[in-house]
Amino acid sequence: MWSYQAPLREMRFVIEDVLRAPDAWRATPAFADLDADTAAEVLQQAARFATEVLLPINAAGDREGCRLEGRDVKTPAGYAAAYAAFVEGGWPALACDPALGGQGLPQLLNAALYEMLVATNHGWTMYPGLLHGAYETVKAHGSAFLRDTYLPKIASGEWLAAMALTEPQAGSDLGLVRTKAEPRADGTLAVSGGKIFISGADHDMSANIVHLVLCRLPDAPPGTKGLSLALVPKFLPDGTRNAIHVDGLEHKMGIHGSATCVLHYEAATGWLVGEPNRGLAAMFLMMNAARLHVALQGLGHLEMAAQNARRQAHERLQLRAAVRPAGAAPAAADPIAWHPAMRRTLGNLQAMAEGLRVVAYRAALRLDEAEHDEDPARREAASAEAALLTPVLKAFATEQGFRGASDALQVWGGYGYVREAGIEQTVRDARIAMVYEGTNEIQAIDLLQRKVLGSMAPAFDRLLDALAADADGSDAGRALAAQVQAAREVVAAVRARSADPEAALAVADDFLAGCAHLLLAWAWGAIERAATQARERDAAWMDERIRLVRHGREWLLPQATVHWARVRAGAALGAVAA
Amino acid sequence: MWSYQAPLREMRFVIEDVLRAPDAWRATPAFADLDADTAAEVLQQAARFATEVLLPINAAGDREGCRLEGRDVKTPAGYAAAYAAFVEGGWPALACDPALGGQGLPQLLNAALYEMLVATNHGWTMYPGLLHGAYETVKAHGSAFLRDTYLPKIASGEWLAAMALTEPQAGSDLGLVRTKAEPRADGTLAVSGGKIFISGADHDMSANIVHLVLCRLPDAPPGTKGLSLALVPKFLPDGTRNAIHVDGLEHKMGIHGSATCVLHYEAATGWLVGEPNRGLAAMFLMMNAARLHVALQGLGHLEMAAQNARRQAHERLQLRAAVRPAGAAPAAADPIAWHPAMRRTLGNLQAMAEGLRVVAYRAALRLDEAEHDEDPARREAASAEAALLTPVLKAFATEQGFRGASDALQVWGGYGYVREAGIEQTVRDARIAMVYEGTNEIQAIDLLQRKVLGSMAPAFDRLLDALAADADGSDAGRALAAQVQAAREVVAAVRARSADPEAALAVADDFLAGCAHLLLAWAWGAIERAATQARERDAAWMDERIRLVRHGREWLLPQATVHWARVRAGAALGAVAA
Fold first, then answer.
1. Which residues contact A242 (CB under 8 A, 6 or more apart)?
2. Which of A141, A290, A394, B211 could form a disulfide with B232 if both were Cys (CB 3.0 to 4.6 A apart)?
3. Across the A/B interface, how many CB contacts are shorter than 8 Å?
4. Given CB atoms, is A318 within the 8 Å cutoff of chain B?
């Protein structure tokens, strides 16, 4: 039976013991009213929503999928009702400004909420998943009219949002976008053009849908410097339906409950958001948060795969174990959880999930600091660290979500390949996160070429210093110090090859994976330290954390060696052939 | 557009230049009439069948799937007609004994055929995929009545076969099988019991279906030593329908065109195959060949993913490349094949496919020697080497088939997640091969615990010696020698821990992966040598082979270090918990 036990205790341990977020909240006026117990209560309610509302419609939504009826998209049974309950519970507004009807809670709690939503229903979560990005964009760049008309409805979740970027010829390369926006005499824009892969461009879950459309004004320069952003609602303020036409739905490998639309705008009415030709800058504002959310999709799937595999491995009896627990009764076959190959898989999955959770939540904490810290220098430093952690997390956590789900599938054997077990849906759903919101390869280039070797070199050094500061004389500390050292060395090695314009590009993926392992080494050390300190609270539970992170250090961390070695070597890739 | 260019030239290069199979054929009376050109002609016809008959019904079969109508299973449109053409072409009998209506061709050519069938249509290939195993089993263990009645029909493919092993409680642990076989006065058996995950237990593709059923005679001892094998046909010799009842079809992640049946026998009439309680031994006869076929599924998917990704990467234009070919015309965006991250992915896929093809075909060559060599000592040595190569190939090639398909999906970006591109079906179809015919974890235990540390230790040493003999002073030779050395060291390290009953079990997966890299190091070296020698035939094509295997050595082989290091370290896994 596919099920979900929200890892509330693990989350609380990370938030309170590992990251000590309540200390940060106390020092931040925006969160001064928040304490650990309140936060825990919020997460408990979130867990309840995810488990009781979203999980029951997850498998059915995968089977049913979405359909286009006339010009309207219908979502699977139960989706709209679940969303109504989500709005009713105030969840869309969790991290929005109280002045705009939000709850003013940290991104950190929003991250934990999001992890649970995706774990229980990735397809459904795609719909509210874009709300916060739209909220931030309109809040920062919208005119007074747009803010008054759209922001409260977006903050409350009453109206959902869609991000319309991709076109057939313009995926990773948004500079090739062609959709046109012609100014009209009344100050609106007439938006025309085709878009593809637009999640939630139409559906039956909210009364209106707010599209943010990447487009070009007349005479805009070519490339990304000529992109503008338009807000194009499904229903105009006077109640008429706008000229947004869904031409079809994609048939995807997974997230069948999410409507992925092919559509075109036919002189649809819109309004400019932000400055002309500055559309990409307006969208980049929400990029870190959006990419962190995608990383949390990887984490959610990994957690779901790990905990269900653990249960399955304890229930399924096959073959006698080489070593049986003292006093175990004689049996024809033992739980497969007793077999070393399965213990190792389960350890890998859980150590990875618990380590990545720490890193992902650290990034969320930095986003909160970047927005709410009173000290501008600390805001800037936090923002820079978040910008460095985000591509690592987006690429690495999504890969682990997919690979971890596939590794977990082995625990079920043949049953895992069959729909009823649940895990094959996780494998299929998890796969998309490696592709969208910037492919994982784009993340790697962003990290190494644009940031570490570019303008954020000092911030990367500061991050390494901060991590290295946690490297004590323990095994965990030595492992961490070795990773930091390796990172410094390979950056120098790549710099030394800078005459080759492809030097960084060829090894960017390995550099990112190396950094992910470095961050895991830090996270596992931090967990071990926190668990040791909190051991008196519950020795058995804390010892299990310590066992897991040691498992991670011994069985998973060695993989870093290969990544660093490949970056260091920078072998030839073969010439570009026409 | 999803398409297939059968890698006939690569296959021929491996068969003729790398493995020098035609020399072996000349020295083997059974193949004395076979020469390189005849073999190439056979493969060309096979490529035509795969490309023209199987590929066109692959995607449609995935969408349509199988259905149960009353008591009969219906396969997707075109499946039955394709199978009729397959029988008409004599393909089922390719490697069967000419005395039984077969064509008497080597397993090596059958392997190449099978690679092409799976690449173009895995779901369909499941049906004839069990024929050869059934043929070998009935040929070796069937009574004169069974051989006379069933063997010619199986050899010709006129009747298809199914292997009925798994039961709900008995997957990896076949000792738990409960299906009963009661002897009747007329010498037949009354077979009763339920089976699951039975591929092709019923369908509409052949006039009869021959089930080989693992079952227990009355008073059989418990466990695997009490298993017998029964032949239970869908239609009895007198034309009446046997009591085989399909209760349902599984809804699987992939290979939708393959009917995976839940069924029960209700005092169905059958005949004992082989000795009572020796059913597992009778089935093991075909195990190496069957597992090699599963490895070829991985290779087929990997080849398909690699060549389609290559085409896509040359067609898709996104972003300007850092380095452009000399003389390339100015353009807004370049083929993504020019971007280093994509060149690397394409190189990985192709180097892996070309290396694995050499190893897999080497195993097939050993199966031919094991059956047809005139020297009994050489037969035995070949059989032992095949027994060692098989689990490595089954586990590693299937993992590469799945991972490679997923890596390839990145080349399409968002398009790859959508059905139309074709690659997501490959990801889904490829996943099953890691599970069935013994999970990959079972293969690893078979290799290390049962064979290398067990009765086949001398054979493993001989294999290492044989591979090491190819290690010359070149870069490839040094890389190979280092791998052989590592393998010897880790075997000694695991032996030194033999007081721990879990010592081998905990590191078996890494040992297998290490051995796979060792075999790849050998294969890449062999390709480089052969390509260098044959360079005058076509310098550009041979240089591309050399470039690819160097890519493999520089970008893929370093992964071996981690696998060997983990085996050497043998870190603790944590105690078994009740």
1. A232, A233, A234, A235, A236, A268, A269
2. B211
3. 227
4. yes
Q: Does B569 touch chain A (CB under 8 A)?
A: yes
ipTM over 0.90: yes
Structure-token pair, residue A506: 């060829």
Query: Can you spell out the DSSP letters for A331-349?
Result: -SS-BGGGSHHHHHHHHHH
The model's pLDDT over B187-202, given as tens digits with 9 standing for 90+, comes to 999 999 999 999 999 9
Residue entry with tokens 């599970």: B435
Which of B340, B432, B562 is the closest to A502 by Cβ? B340
Would you list the domain boundaries of chain B?
Answer: 8-137, 159-278, 286-323+331-436, 439-573
Task: Choose the catalytic residue: A10, A16, A437, A528.
Answer: A437
User: b vs e for B212-240, b when ≥16 Cβ sit within 10 Å of the residue's Cβ?
Assistant: bbbbbbeebeeebebbbbbbbbbebeeee
In B551-561, which positions are buried (b, 16+ CB within 10 angstroms) versus exposed (e)? bbbbbbbbbbb
Q: Does B172 touch chain A (CB under 8 A)?
A: yes
**What is the third-level CATH fold of B8-137?**
Butyryl-Coa Dehydrogenase, subunit A; domain 1 (1.10.540)
Which CATH number, 2.60.40.10, 3.40.50.1000, 1.20.140.10, 1.10.3210.10, labels domain A287-324+331-569? 1.20.140.10
User: Phi and psi dihedrals of A70, rounded to 5?
Assistant: 65, -120
Exposed / middle / buried, residue B43 (Cβ in 10 Å: 0-12, 13-18, 19+): buried
| Contact (CB<8Å) A173/B559 | no
Q: Which tokens belong to B399?
A: 């993992």
Question: Most A CBs within 10 Å: which of B122, B166, B173, B195, as the mutation test of the A interface?
Answer: B173
**CATH number of the B286-323+331-436 domain:** 1.20.140.10
Residue-wise pLDDT for B260-282, tens only, equals 999 999 999 999 999 999 999 88
CB-nearest to A418 from B251, B508, B577 is B251
Are residues B285 and B343 in contact, defined by beta-carbon separation less than 8 angstroms? no
Distance, in Å, from the CA atom of B187 to the CA atom of B290, rounded to the nearest integer, reads 30
Residue A371's pLDDT band, with cuts at 50, 70 and 90, is: very high
What are the start-end ranges of the H helices in A319-416?
340-372, 376-412
Please state, in angstroms and rounded to a whole number, the distance separating the CA atoms of residues A336 and A346.
Answer: 11
Confirm if B535 and B543 have CB atoms less than 8 A apart.
yes
Taking only residues 185 to 244 of chain A, the set having a beta carbon closer than 8 angstroms to any beta carbon of chain B reads: 196-197, 222-223
CA–CA distance, B363 with A485 (Å, rounded to integer): 44
**Cβ of B430 under 8 Å from any chain A Cβ?**
no
Q: A406 and B338: CB-CB below 8 Å?
A: no
The answer to whether B325 faces chain A, any CB pair under 8 Å, is yes
pLDDT per position as a tens digit, A383-439: 999 999 999 999 999 999 999 999 999 999 999 999 999 999 999 999 999 999 999
CB contact under 8 A, B505 and A559: no
- Overall fold of domain A159-277: Butyryl-CoA Dehydrogenase, subunit A; domain 2 (2.40.110)
Q: How far apart are the two ends of chain B, measured CA to CA in Å?
A: 53
Residues of A in contact with B559 (CB under 8 A): 562
Cβ-nearest to B251 among A402, A419, A565:
A419
B67 phi and psi, to 5 degrees? -145, 155
Q: Where are the alpha helices (DSSP H) in A50-176?
A: 58-64, 79-88, 107-120, 122-129, 131-141, 144-156
Q: What is the pLDDT of residues B509-540, one digit of tens each?
A: 999 999 999 999 999 999 999 999 999 999 99
Cα separation, B356 vs B344, in Å, equals 18
SS3 B514: helix
